[in-house]
Design goal:
By secondary structure, the protein is of the alpha/beta class. The protein is built from 19 helices and 23 strands.
């Protein structure tokens, strides 16, 4: 029936191992005061945690009333901003500094014992630095008393038993804002977020309860369904990298994936049978047809190969420059990779056109006035290589096309293509670009365009692909088609007796057992793919990546010091296995270095998406982190692919938990 704040009489003392006098910290690093159990470089002075009783310890008991008054004042100050279930509670950890006592000026007989509240942690850590029994016993006592004070009475209806909890201040549970204090914007947002979280949790509990009830009501005679087949790790047996026991966990797939054996075999085959007029021409033709089917491009679409996606976008913008004139407008989205921004900035400047930015936060609907009749080019991204969120591209393109029917729509699909199908022929975009080395292929880029867009871009310019084609890359692209066919085969029912096993365990022996002669296959120069095969392969990929993404997102979203760069909501049509985080304390470089030393490959930085880190939207996702730090340091990115495993995700978590200050 009452709301209040209580403090437990059990605590830890943090004592400096040297005199705390002016200038001491400058003379010796061992003289300082933190929430550590031993503040000395001298191992002989190590004492472990020092448990104390605030009511009985002679040195600190006189400060206890001051601590209670301080906590009561804190509680009263934030009463206007809190509400919720009257049975709920918040478990806090408080750090106090005790100062020298002094006599009150107006009463020589009265002694003041001043305390300073340094920090409030919500919730406090439930483990100690040493794990010593006498220290763990303090945590056990505090939590045991918390159960008897609040939890058991709410569950069983028993009378509260405070144990070591001592009230600092109480008031009726229905409190009013007598002072007329207006809650801050942050407080209102926190209240809304908490209400949404409670609603989501209640819904999840209802679903689980319904499932349990349904299971209890099921006839016992029904046969048990076999456990679902786990997809994570699919394709792993085709990649020589994973056959090496010493290979680190590879979570930098957004920068370039490992190469499956079909790609290697086809590339080696082209090198062993080099004949530009015959073999090379066939590799080139089959490669383009393979990409046409991977991207679901129409038969009359242009399929243009290049050294990488950035070069292809730069060439496209340079060719489109002659179509621009003063008064035209070029729009570039802030969630773009810089490869789909800088070339258009240059083209607009050279042509005297105007450049407009499509800001973050308006991905589903452009801001008013952005797209008008003057717009000639709109450059957007299918997905962010930082946030790992893919938009509903066909819907976005329809919106753009409705507002600016004659503008050229250029889509950067580099981040999305390894994970979800492009389906270029089903949307109204003019151009779509992808990087093949980020989708288990060779280092090469592909740009597909509609027939009309390709004719406009051609003009009087030179050929798109001057000089000799990269036949080895073409062969590797054909190998990509074979690899996608192998992934599609995973849609078939698993062999008998393998239900519930990891795909990586079912697919057979290591690919490294193949001989050199097995790599030479001049008969492999034919298109391996059909549209249905591509769709089946992507379904397998999505199932595998969902299994990987769930435990990683659950961990980072629940970590109190991690800010996850994601927006969700209507913008996120598909969540990709690209997870970027900012630690509230640790630098990205420090985290990446620690992971590398412990056998996990990841990456830190801005990932050539500087406008994303400059945006207010991302800065709002990282409260308490200086904008300058976001712009300069960026984030830590863990980018997974279908061939990774859940066990590798667990290993990553174990490595991260070992970082000091994590």
């Amino acid at each position: 029936t009452e709301a209040g704040i209580w403090v437990h009489r059990r605590a830890f003392a943090h004592v400096a191992n040297g005199p705390m006098v002016p200038g001491a910290a400058r003379r010796s690093r061992s003289v300082h005061l933190t929430n550590c159990c031993a503040n000395s470089h001298d191992a002989d002075k190590f004492a472990g945690e020092i448990p104390i009783d605030l009511c009985e310890e002679q040195l600190v008991s006189c400060y206890f009333p001051s601590m209670r008054r301080c906590l009561a004042k804190v509680w009263r100050s934030f009463l206007p901003y809190i509400s919720g279930d009257p049975r709920g509670f918040e478990y806090l950890g408080c750090d106090f500094m005790l100062s020298h006592p002094y006599h009150a000026e107006d009463d020589d007989a009265s002694t003041i014992y001043p305390v300073y509240l340094l920090e409030i942690n919500a919730p406090p850590s439930q483990d100690t630095a040493t794990g010593l029994p006498h220290a763990e016993e303090v945590h056990d006592a505090v939590l045991r008393d918390l159960l008897t004070l609040l939890v058991l009475p709410a569950v069983t209806g028993s009378a509260p038993q405070p144990g070591g909890w001592i009230p600092c201040d109480t008031a009726p549970s229905r409190l009013t804002n007598a002072d007329g204090v207006v809650p801050s914007k942050a407080a209102l947002l926190n209240r809304m977020r908490w209400a949404l979280t409670e609603r989501r949790r209640r819904r999840e509990d209802e679903i689980i309860l319904a499932q349990l009830t349904e299971e209890d009501a099921s006839p016992p005679s029904l046969p048990e369904a076999p456990p679902p087949r786990r997809r994570a790790g699919v394709g792993r047996a085709h990649c020589p990298y994973f056959a090496q026991p010493s290979s680190p966990v590879f979570f930098e797939n957004a920068g370039g994936t490992q190469v499956p054996l079909p790609v290697t075999r086809a590339t080696v085959s082209s090198l062993c049978h080099r004949h530009r007029a015959n073999e090379g021409r066939r590799w080139n033709y089959v490669a383009r047809e393979t990409l046409r089917r991977l991207l679901a491009a129409p038969d009359d679409a242009a399929v243009i190969l290049g050294p990488n996606a950035s070069r292809l976008l730069a060439d496209l913008a340079a060719r489109w420059e002659h179509l621009l004139s003063p008064g035209d407008v070029v729009v570039v989205a802030d969630w773009n990779h810089v490869a789909n921004v800088t070339p258009w900035e240059r083209a607009a400047q050279n042509a005297g056109a105007t450049l407009r930015r499509w800001p973050m936060g308006y991905q589903t609907d452009p801001p008013p006035g952005l797209l008008d009749r003057a717009v000639s080019v709109v450059a957007v991204g299918h997905a962010s290589n930082v946030e790992g969120e893919a938009c509903d591209l066909p819907a976005l393109v329809r919106t753009i096309r409705k507002l600016v029917p004659h503008a050229a729509i250029v889509v950067d699909g580099v981040a999305a293509f390894p994970h979800i199908p492009a389906r270029f022929g089903e949307m109204e975009a003019d151009w779509y670009v992808a990087a093949l080395h980020k989708a288990c292929g060779p280092v090469a880029g592909v740009l597909v365009g509609t027939r009309n867009a390709a004719a406009k871009a051609a003009g009087n310019s030179q050929a798109w692909e001057p000089g000799t084609d990269n036949f080895e890359a073409c062969a590797g692209i054909v190998g990509m088609g074979e690899y996608f066919s192998l992934l599609a085969e995973e849609e078939a029912p698993p062999p008998a007796g393998t239900e519930g096993q990891d795909t990586a365990q079912v697919n057979g022996a290591s690919p490294c057992l193949l001989s050199f002669e097995d790599l030479i296959d001049p008969e492999a120069q034919h298109v391996q793919l059909s549209p249905d095969t591509v769709e089946m392969a992507y379904r397998v990929v999505r199932e595998a990546e969902r299994e990987l993404l769930a435990p990683l997102l659950n961990y980072v979203r629940g970590h109190p010091r991690l800010h996850v760069l994601e927006r969700g909501g209507g913008w996120c049509h598909v969540r990709l296995p690209i997870v970027s985080v900012v630690h509230s304390i640790l630098a990205a470089e420090e985290i990446v270095g620690h992971c590398r030393r412990h056998g996990v490959v990841c990456r830190g930085g801005t990932f050539l998406s500087p406008r994303l880190f400059e945006s207010k939207l991302v800065q709002d996702l990282c409260p308490g982190v200086w904008p300058e730090r976001l712009r300069e340091e960026g984030a830590v990115r863990f980018s997974l692919l279908h061939y990774n495993t859940v066990e590798e995700v667990r290993r990553l978590v174990q490595v991260l938990e070992k970082i000091e200050g994590w």
